[in-house]
User: Fold this.
Amino acid sequence: MNSLREIIESSPGVRHLAFVSDPATDQAQPLGPAQWDWPAIRRVLVVRLRSIGDTVLTTPSLLALRRFLPQAQIDILLEDWVAPVLEGSDLIDRVITIPRESKAARGRMARELRNTRYDVVYNLHGGTTATLLTRATGAKHRVGFGHYQYARLHNHLAPSSTEIWQRPILHSVEQQLALVGWTGVPVTDRPGTRLAVTESSLRSVAHKLRVGGLEQVDESESFAIIHPTAAFETKQWATEKFARVAEAVAARGLTPIAIVSPRERSIIDALKSESSIPIFGLSDLALPEVTALASRARLFVGNDSGIAHIAAAAGAPCVVIFGSSNVAHWRPWTTNPNEVVREEMPCQPCHGYFCAEFERPECILRVPVERVVAAIDRVLREN
Assistant:
């Protein structure tokens, strides 16, 4: 494994990571006939509001559009807090951001989008704000699924993604590819997620590791990323169990590095107190730095989360612990070694905002350490 320093010295500024399910991308086919005259298309907008994971899982659709329209302007509209995920990406020309909650900002954004004069707009979100902004663009071709709440605001309505693919169970990536492929864009190779690793993020991560006392980890030691937090209680495995995992990866010669957001610092403190071995913690990583760190990791172990999708897109072998979520829909989208560990229960999957069956979310809490460690061993062997 090359060190962070070697990657920095050999990089012209940005590294791009891509993984596809079928290497014969030149054989990819669309999922429907062209809905308009593609050679006349000059500007395309993709609307994908919401979370980190949603943004990462949009990149296969962006890749399909970019390779099909290499000369076109391709922009994406994201919420501002998640936009750094696509920093340095060559899949898009511009990331347009909007605050999560601001009616005034929506009005300004509507005017800006309309003035850009997009030819095609894909609404990959379907929520009210996304749909209203899609309509506000005034684009000649506004594409959404027929089941969207305000579907009439689009003028190209696709059937359900399962009908387009002719399969009953789809991943989130495939659902988004369905909308793009239905309009005539080749997508049948189902591209992998793709994120950029910037030189500045590699340098910043290397500096933070040195400051924290891990100055050799990027040169001589392998490390594992531990991500012990999640957006909901129904997706968060017990901290004391993550402590056992940290001990297990350390016993296998890997330095455990726990990462959390600034507001989750107490989880790292609890993880350290529960563990019998030293655990290095980072709570100040920007999203591009998470990608940079994951691109060098020998292993990622964490809950089902946006960070797990970043790790998978960055090429890290992954073990992801699932609770309430739909595994078929949200599992890592990667051809690198990966495993999902979960405790099967009749109430899965569910909405995940809270547990409606038990006092505590048993689906995630019942997952035993032994099964996670066994998955780690299999992934490490395969890698």
In short: The first strand starts at residue 14 and ends at 18. Residues 241 and 369 are 6 Å apart (CA to CA).
